[in-house]
From TrEMBL:
<protein>
    <recommendedName>
        <fullName>Phosphatidic acid phosphatase type 2/haloperoxidase domain-containing protein</fullName>
    </recommendedName>
</protein>
<feature type="transmembrane region" description="Helical">
    <location>
        <begin position="21"/>
        <end position="37"/>
    </location>
</feature>
<feature type="compositionally biased region" description="Basic and acidic residues">
    <location>
        <begin position="258"/>
        <end position="269"/>
    </location>
</feature>
<feature type="transmembrane region" description="Helical">
    <location>
        <begin position="225"/>
        <end position="247"/>
    </location>
</feature>
<dbReference type="GO" id="GO:0005886">
    <property type="term" value="C:plasma membrane"/>
</dbReference>
<keyword id="KW-0472">Membrane</keyword>
<feature type="transmembrane region" description="Helical">
    <location>
        <begin position="93"/>
        <end position="113"/>
    </location>
</feature>
<dbReference type="InterPro" id="IPR043216">
    <property type="entry name" value="PAP-like"/>
</dbReference>
<dbReference type="GO" id="GO:0046839">
    <property type="term" value="P:phospholipid dephosphorylation"/>
</dbReference>
<dbReference type="GO" id="GO:0008195">
    <property type="term" value="F:phosphatidate phosphatase activity"/>
</dbReference>
<dbReference type="InterPro" id="IPR036938">
    <property type="entry name" value="PAP2/HPO_sf"/>
</dbReference>
<dbReference type="Pfam" id="PF01569">
    <property type="entry name" value="PAP2"/>
</dbReference>
<dbReference type="GO" id="GO:0006644">
    <property type="term" value="P:phospholipid metabolic process"/>
</dbReference>
<feature type="transmembrane region" description="Helical">
    <location>
        <begin position="194"/>
        <end position="213"/>
    </location>
</feature>
<feature type="transmembrane region" description="Helical">
    <location>
        <begin position="162"/>
        <end position="182"/>
    </location>
</feature>
<feature type="domain" description="Phosphatidic acid phosphatase type 2/haloperoxidase">
    <location>
        <begin position="104"/>
        <end position="240"/>
    </location>
</feature>
<dbReference type="GO" id="GO:0007165">
    <property type="term" value="P:signal transduction"/>
</dbReference>
Amino acid sequence: MSHIQQTAFIYPLFRNPKAKINAALPFIIMTIVSKPYQRGIYCNDDSIKYPLKLDTITPGMLAAITICCTLVIISSGEAYLVYRQRIQSNTQFNQYIAALYKVVGTFLFGGAVSQSLTDLAKYTIGRPRPNFMAVCAPKVCTGYMLVINCTGTPEDVTESRLSFYSGHSSFSMYCMLFLALYVQARFVAKWARLLRPTIQFFLVAFAVYVGYTRVSDYKHHWSDVLVGLLQGALVALLNVHFVSDFFEKCPKRSKRPGTRDGEEPERKPSVQIADSENSNHYNYHSRGTV
């Protein structure tokens, strides 16, 4: 199956708003209804005895940074391309709104898939976080305990069983790599040769930094962060390759001699002839014939 056929098959799935909701259903259901798997623990396991520590990158901070970066990069990129007439749509609505809807729709679809896969693993595996014992604060814990009576708040104890794999890492890597690939596909002008890799470096570096902080804050084991980064990167790559049209070749517009790449030739106003019947060569009537 060619890339065009794959896109033609998959694109209607995410273009429908119901597809985005369906992709996010596992995330919504597990967050509201489900409880994580109650995995037994060894009380002498030093890997879950780390102290409590505040988040370096809070969920609200991560959401704010990723949303701001997404809005700035995508809105400016699509505005530039529509202004330069390098992307066109058959829609009857505004060209910029249509282009923005396609990219944002693709981004949201992949984000819903990534978050659903993350929560599916979290609630199914139920791995204790490195600070589980500090959050649980059990009165009695000896040897291996399948059921442990925690004195901490139920919400915090439930959250302390969602270590594998890191949601911060998967979400940040998905968002940043998606934007990095978007920049690679859209910022193709000569003046962006140095700007493009610079933006991509800072985007991916931020995602990796988020993963580092989850280990140093004792919220995840290093393997949780590694798997989260790989999962976010994989979803971003598959989403861009199979769903988006970022790297599809657009037909080149014919240009007149003397014009540079991306420049429109100067258009001179045409003189409109009032007598269209006599001036139209398709309706030529010979005069003086019998």
